[in-house]
C-alpha cells in the first residue's frame, strides 16, 4: 500500500499533560474489530495517569468524549474510564500526593 492509499486519520481528541500525550484517533473507512464485551485473553485496557482528574474529565466532555463511569474518588486517588473510537476502555487515574 502506498501512502496515497492510506485512510484519512482524524484525531477525535488530544490531551497533552506535562509528561505525556494521548490522542484518540479514528480512520475514515478503516475496518477495526470492536472491543470485546466479555472477559478474554489479550489486550483489554490501558490506564493513564492525569494531573487533574476533574479538569481532564471536563475537557474530554467538551470534546464529545463520554465518561463511561466516574470520576470516583477514593482516599488516595480518583478514577474514571473513557472509550476510544473503537470501544476500548481507557482508565484515567490521578494519584493524590
Shape: globular
- Number of DSSP strand runs: 6
Sequence stretches where pLDDT stays below 50 over 5 or more residues: none
CATH topology of the domain at 38-97: 2,3-Dihydroxybiphenyl 1,2-Dioxygenase, domain 1
**Average pLDDT for all residues:** 80
Give a structural overview.
By secondary structure, the protein is mostly beta strands. The chain has a domain at about 40-95: 2,3-Dihydroxybiphenyl 1,2-Dioxygenase, domain 1 (Roll), CATH 3.10.180. It contains one helix and six strands. The chain has one helix at about 55-60; strands at about 10-15, 20-25, 45-50, 65-75, 80-85, 90-95. The strands form two sheets. The chain has a four-stranded mixed sheet, with helices on one face. Strand 4 and strand 5 form a beta hairpin.
Summarize this, please?
The protein has one helix spanning 53-62, and strands at residues 9-16, 21-27, 45-49, 67-73, 78-83, 89-93.
